[in-house]
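User: Fold this; tokens only.

Assistant: Input:
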Amino acid sequence: MSQIDEMLKLYRYNIYNNEYICHEDLKYLAALFSEEIDLSTYLRFEKFSSKFCWKNYILIIDNMEYPQKLKGLPYLFELLQDNNWPVFNETIDALMRFDIEYLIPNIEKYLNQAFEEKDEMWISGICTLLPELFICGKGQKAELNVKIAFKSY
């Protein structure tokens, strides 16, 4: 059993059931998650007892080290599927802390997937991210790529 598995058994570090994990403990877990592990083992919706606990994995991804942190992007984009979820705004904030060169390919990928699935709520959630790119000054490079992504629709 890995060190992460042992830590997650303790309520103090239990990201699945404890929505009040202190920031320092989440940073410690982020350091463990920054090692070469399979994130899908740990970051799955069905493992969490409450949507409020999802903020734990947002904060873990947010505090992970590159390049492992990049493997967290798909999990963050999943959280854009419903803008009524309690962690939606925190997800937008976490995504905005990624460099634009990592965001654009993922925006295009998940927009394509959302359009294929005809998931209007997810499309809307991803589109909520777009104005934030411009507000934060990341939009010049993003504008061309996003226009290209929308042209196919």
